[in-house]
Amino acid sequence: MAVAPTLSEVSDDDTADTEKADSEQPQRRRRAWPLHIIAALAFLGMGYWITSGIWADPDRRSVLYNEGDHSFFEWVLGYGVQIVAHGADPFWTGLMNAPIGVNLAANTSITVYAVVFAPLTYLAGPQVTYVTILMLNLAGAGIAWYAFLLRFAVKHKAAAFIGAAFCGFAPGWISHANGHLNWTAAWLPPVLLWWMLRLRTPRRWLLNGIVLGLLMAAGFSIAPEMLFDLVLAVVIFVLVWSLSRDTMPQVLRAAPRALLSLVIGAVVAGALLAYPLYMHFAGPGSFKGTGFNQKRYVEDAAAGLFYPFRSLAGFFGIQRGDLASNQTEGASFWGWPLLALMVIATVLLWWRAGRSRKSTMRALTVVGLLFMVLSFGPRLHWFAKEYHDIPLLYAVVRDWPIFDSALPARFALVTTGVIGITVALLADRVFSSRYRSYARVIWGVAFAAALVPIIPTPVLTSGRATEPKFVADGTWKKYVPRNGVMSALPFSSPSAADAQRWQAYTMSRRGEQYRIPAGYFLGPGGLAGTGRAGAPSRWTDRMFLKAALTGFVDDIDNYDRSRVREDMAYWGVEAVFIPDKLTGTAGPLFRQSLIRTTTDLFGPGQRVEDVLVWRIRPGIDPQSIPGEGRDGQA
Question: For this UniProt entry, which segments traverse the membrane (predicted)?
Fold first, then answer.
């Protein structure tokens, strides 16, 4: 991994005068700073543009297509204040899913973000912290790729900017901007690659190893699946690149110091990750595999030929969103003009290339194609049709450790990085060559045709309920003791996450806390010992959720009351409340149906500020009514 070449070896000038370049470098750096700042501001502006719908009102706006994940990450950010202020366990919590708790290490708990941004969360709330991190993830990806490409791959700043703009704002990353603070952290790959390439240098091998270990630990805490994909890609790249008589001597020369730095990095990362790795794989609340169906979250082999929904082409209706598993997991959708340009670029960069350049291009091509095939999943999908009789590579590896926890579609994001690097290399060659004016016009048209249609548009948002005064003012403390169990109705679930949001906002204020039953998280309880989204449902949360989602009210009898009484005793719930406004992932909920169901169980609620509150005596309420309905035991 550490003996990979710098990508500048694929540039046109394989015989550059390095001494002259070194002597001119300080002066060039001084002249380049204004352009670097302009590039950074452009990427920051693009990040704001993508997230502008949320910035318009972080309290009342949520991503339209993945409000559940949006709320989960707000909860994690609120919990970050508890970690910093009260020394809470970063990888286990009992505040959610009472009385069992949640293994946060088995979830994407973005621990580094939660801790680093805890001051902002305390001052402004998880809502503002969420959109700030999302914006900085996107902008930081462009900035990091720009610096990486300019340092290791290309000479021209314009070429670096073009490649970085694609790498940072490619369709796959914009798709994940629908709710994912982990998978939008696309600045991680260039930063990690930068330090991996530094391992070739003979100096500072100890420092390089320590920094690499710190970066690996941080990467695991933010996006472990992305880290796995990146490490796998680098290993494959190095193996393929090394299979040449010209590159093998470089491998042998760099291997001793690189391996030594890798060992140091592994020791540092292992020390920092010992507890979270234990919790992730063997701790309470851990599980095997993933909580999602790997057969569903795959890339359609035809998707790469079309444009994404949130793009300039998509704005004009030229898109095929039906080829993605959902609006958050569309990792390809590059468009056929860009794929055609990639074929031309690969051929052109190979043409009259030296052996070193060919070795690098061969490795890049193999990685890009291999990860594209992996993203297709275990069976071929073509224009939304699954061909069960055509097994693919992922069918072989799907049960291997870590592969069994990954979603295949996301492997295409590695291919996105390969495409971005190739775009930058091709642009650098065009800028470096002495083409005639008409040839430059042709190249400009080709780049525009490939890249302009996939210019991203802002993620769509929808309205959501604001925090009730009952929670914000701390009035809830009169109805449940510290660390008691209370919840808004319906209980938090993938379909309705408001109850979890209210708790998140309370956690961000550092004071007394209450616990909630259920919740939206990944935990055990899936088929064959795998994970599932949320806690296994019980009679009571299904009853409340049905009323809220459908508006249908069941005829409640004593059997229902006995089941609800049993569930309330299991959770230890002491109070429930219904705010004046309820929202779920599909929009407003049926509040009156929910009030009627709750009233049939517990009697009339008490009006307190902007909510209706019901006190619960666990194990006693709701009481059976003599002579009414079934009277069986739960």
Answer: 33-55, 75-92, 104-124, 130-149, 204-220, 226-243, 255-278, 333-351, 363-384, 407-426, 438-456
Which H/E stretch holds residue 253?
A: helix 248-282
Rounded Cα distance between 261 and 267, Å, is: 10
Residues near 65 by beta carbon (within 8 Å), at least 6 away in sequence: 178, 179, 326, 327, 328, 460
Q: Would you list the DSSP string of 522-568?
A: EEE-SGGGBEEESSPP-HHHHHHHHHHHH-------HHHHHHHHHHH
C-alpha 612 chain-centroid distance: 36
Do residues 625 and 585 make contact, with C-beta atoms less than 8 angstroms apart? Answer: no
Dihedral class, residue 317 (left if φ above 0, else alpha if ψ from -120 to 50, else beta): left
Contact 414, 233 (CB under 8 A): yes
Cα separations (Å) of 422 from 11, 41, 163, 347? 11, 24, 8, 11
Predicted confidence at residue 20, as pLDDT, reads: 40
**Bridge partner residues of 594 (DSSP):** none
pLDDT over 80 at 360, yes or no = yes
What is the per-residue pLDDT across 165-205, written as a single tens digit (0 to 9) for each? Answer: 999 999 999 999 999 999 999 999 999 999 988 887 777 88
The H helix count followed by the E strand count for the chain is 23, 14
**3 state DSSP class of 488:** strand
Looking only at the bridges linking them, the beta strands covering 485-488 and 573-579 are parallel
CB 134 within 8 A of CB 555: no
Q: How far is CA 573 from CA 285, 487, 518, 554, in A?
A: 21, 8, 11, 22
**Mean per-residue pLDDT, 594-622:** 96
* CB-based contacts of 532, cutoff 8 Å, min separation 6: 291, 522, 523, 524, 525, 526
Distances in whole angstroms, Cα of residue 73 to Cα of each of 59, 107, 234:
14, 10, 29
Question: What distance in Å separates the CA atoms of residue 566 and residue 557, rounded to the nearest whole number?
Answer: 15
pLDDT in tens, 31-68: 778 899 999 999 999 999 999 999 999 999 999 999 99
